[in-house]
Design brief:
The chain has 442 residues and is α+β, with helices and mostly antiparallel strands. The protein folds into three domains: 2-206, HUPs (Rossmann fold); 240-313, 2-Layer Sandwich (Uridine Diphospho-n-acetylenolpyruvylglucosamine Reductase, domain 3); 328-438, no CATH class. The protein is built from 13 helices and 21 strands. The strands form five sheets. The protein has a six-stranded mixed beta sheet, with helices on both faces. A five-stranded antiparallel beta sheet has the order 11-15-18-19-20, with no helix packed on it. Helix 2 crosses helix 7 (165-175), helix 5 packs across helix 9 and helix 9 packs across helix 11 (256-271). The two termini are 26 Å apart.
Length: 442
């Protein structure tokens, strides 16, 4: 129904819409502009199921979007209900945030939106900088929220990040917009609420320009973080061997600050998560005298041997009662295909060029890497081993999960690399692109 409501020949933009003041203002401004420019708008609402009034909030969003549609605005509401079960000791905020972004990502992709607008403004950025500083974050953490970022095929952008909160409030008053007040925003159990309610009024009373200056500090931290990442890439090019291991002697000669920066960048690329500060301190203290040594971390194992530091991911341990891995798949149309036992979803989207012909996907075999597979990355390029292709394209180890897709003995698609050039469809054929969404993406 929703897909039919969207016009296929018009671009689609999505807005994360909670029904609160900021997202209501952003959705109103976006839908009004879209009406003039021929763009379809999706309002993406996530029902967390954590608040007693969550059903009322969803009903409010439905009524508001229906009212704006009656004005002729090209707007469609898409919602997702979550069933969150935070574990003991888990942060409810963190669990909800991760699930929310994953749900927004999936809704955007499944409805053809390549861009999602978020309603964060300058006050949000300043608060994030303060919270990260109080948590002891490094430069990357202090950088706060980027104005735009691309993750797994979706561009996330914050068009109001440099605008003060007062500007959003003025917009809401000007257009007499109705919005939801979330009761949990006054709950002091949450760190951001304590900052807003108890710290921020006193801070701005003493320093009226705090919002602007702290937001600027986050921008400078972001610039510094980009520079550190670029420096780490230069150092890794000289230190990393073909097996993604680091040569220790030249690493230690870089000096403490530069070498530690390289270690953090290298580990995050391979593990898909930050290197814990305590682990980095221990590693840096023990590396100079290490012969054969190893350090166990939550994501896997670091090993030092013969002057090289290597990392291996911890093997996934399937639950005893978990489903067996799906070995066969039929794709006859665009859509989402949850693959049992693989920990993710395969997304097929219709494209005009660069995809794989639909008839080739009618009978697929799903398989793990076994060694010896050859992949051709582009027309006229020689087929090379998956290991070399992953290294050449800079695909981190954690992004290589998911099954290889075969049609008979013919390799069609590899997670992290895409469609083999030899399997790409010709012009005029019905074809789809393929994307892998691991359960942990968000």
């Amino acid at each position: 129904m929703i897909r039919r409501a969207l016009q296929a020949d018009r671009p689609v933009v999505a807005v994360a819409y909670s029904g609160g003041r900021d997202s209501t203002a952003l959705l109103h401004a976006t839908a009004q502009a879209a009406h003039e420019q021929g763009v379809e708008v999706l309002a993406l609402h996530v029902h967390h199921g954590l608040q007693p009034r969550a059903d009322d909030w969803l009903a409010h969003c439905e009524r508001q979007c229906a009212a704006w549609r009656r004005k002729g605005w090209p707007l469609t509401l898409v919602s997702r209900r979550l069933e969150l079960a935070p574990g003991r000791g888990d942060s409810v905020e963190a669990v909800a945030r991760k699930a929310r972004y994953q749900a927004l990502h999936e809704m955007a992709q499944s409805h053809g939106a390549g861009i999602v607008l978020l309603a964060h403004h300058r006050r949000d950025q300043a608060e994030t900088f303060l919270l990260q500083a109080l948590r002891g974050a490094g430069v990357a953490g202090l950088a706060g929220m980027p104005q735009a970022a691309e993750r797994a095929g979706v561009v996330w952008t914050r068009p109001w990040l440099e605008h003060p909160r007062e500007a959003v409030e003025a917009y809401v008053r000007q257009h007499r917009l109705r919005y939801i007040d979330d009761d949990s925003n006054s709950d002091p159990r949450y760190a951001r609420n304590r900052l807003r309610l108890q710290v921020w009024p006193a801070l701005t009373a003493a320093f009226p320009q705090a919002e602007a200056t702290l937001s600027d500090a986050g921008t400078w931290a972001r610039d510094a973080s980009v520079c550190l990442a670029e420096l780490a890439e230069l150092d890794l090019a000289a230190l990393q061997d073909e097996d993604d291991a680091l040569r220790l002697s030249p690493l230690l000669k870089l000096g403490a600050a530069r070498a530690r920066n390289t270690l953090r960048h290298w580990y995050r690329r391979l593990a898909g998560q930050p290197l814990p500060a305590a682990a980095l301190e221990r590693l840096w203290a023990e590396l100079p005298g290490a012969g054969a040594a190893q350090w166990e971390l939550p994501a896997g194992m670091l090993r030092c041997y013969r002057g090289r530091l290597s990392f291996s991911l911890r093997p996934a341990t399937p639950a005893a009662s978990g489903p067996a891995r799906q070995a066969r798949l039929q794709i006859r149309r665009a859509g989402r295909y949850r693959l049992a036992g693989w920990g993710g979803t395969l997304v097929a989207r219709r494209v005009a060029a660069g995809g794989v012909a639909l008839p080739l996907l009618a009978e697929l075999t799903l398989a793990e890497r076994s060694g010896g597979e050859q992949f051709q990355s582009g027309p006229g390029r020689p087929p090379r081993s998956l290991k070399k292709q992953f290294q050449a394209q800079g695909v981190p180890a954690w992004a290589r999960s998911g099954p290889l897709l075969y049609a008979g003995e013919r390799l069609l698609w590899v997670p992290g690399l895409g469609i083999d050039a030899r399997a790409r469809a010709g012009s005029g054929e019905a074809q789809v692109s393929l994307d892998w969404l691991p359960d942990e993406v968000g």
